[in-house]
């Protein structure tokens, strides 16, 4: 938490972390830009995704049964040795039925897509287990004992937001300090320039007062440097 009382610095632990990274590994300040998908991942529940895939597969099987198709078979094919499924119509199907004509290709495509989703879901579970283990979670913990991935990712998302704010705040402080340094240099240069001016030059740069002590405007008379010097000597 930030502390503001008693003149204590209000920098957080993340601010100090950003400061260390800025000095030692400044290229890592953009690491959060590589995690832009984390906010969206916090809204995805893997268990719900698995149930949705199971439900979709049941719907595909129902369509297959309604179209009177045989069970889909899988065989190697395509580029890269992918598994290509095929569904055949039963001999007694009517050729003029549009649904039965398009159903085989749809069922085959849907089954392939669901298989890809199954693999992606398994990979997501494995990746989460590896990352959670790296951060101290037990590798052999039961799924019921492990925190859901979308809830755990909320911590990462919060850290990314705090880290991004800390980087922006540090850059703003650096810009402010640069402006202050420039102003200090300008003041020093101005003071040094005035210190090198001769007495006549200083007196010549000063406006002469009007006889009544009131500024008479641009038409008022100004003494020459010699007269101003004599007046200053006489006054002293």
Structure explained in plain terms:
With 236 residues, this protein is mainly alpha-helical. It is built from 7 helices and 2 strands. The chain has helices spanning 13-24, 38-41, 46-66, 98-134, 149-195, 199-204, 225-235; strands at residues 73-76, 83-86. It has a two-stranded antiparallel sheet with strand order 1-2. A hairpin with a 6-residue loop joins β1 (73-76) and β2 (83-86). It is elongated. The model is unreliable at 1-8 and 74-84 (pLDDT under 50).
Biggest β-sheet: strands ordered side by side in the sheet: 1-2
Give the uncertain stretches in residue-range form: 1-8, 74-84
Structural class: mainly alpha
Question: What do the pLDDT scores average to?
Answer: 76
How many beta-strand runs?
Answer: 2
Q: Percent of residues in helical segments?
A: 55-70%
Number of helical stretches of at least 4 residues: 7
Backbone shape: elongated
Q: Tell me which oligomeric state these chains represent.
A: single chain
N-to-C order of helices and strands? HHHEEHHHH
Beta strand %: under 5%
Biggest beta sheet attributes: 2 strands, antiparallel
Spatial gap, N to C terminus? 64 Å
What is the radius of gyration computed over CA atoms, rounded to a whole number of angstroms? Answer: 40 Å
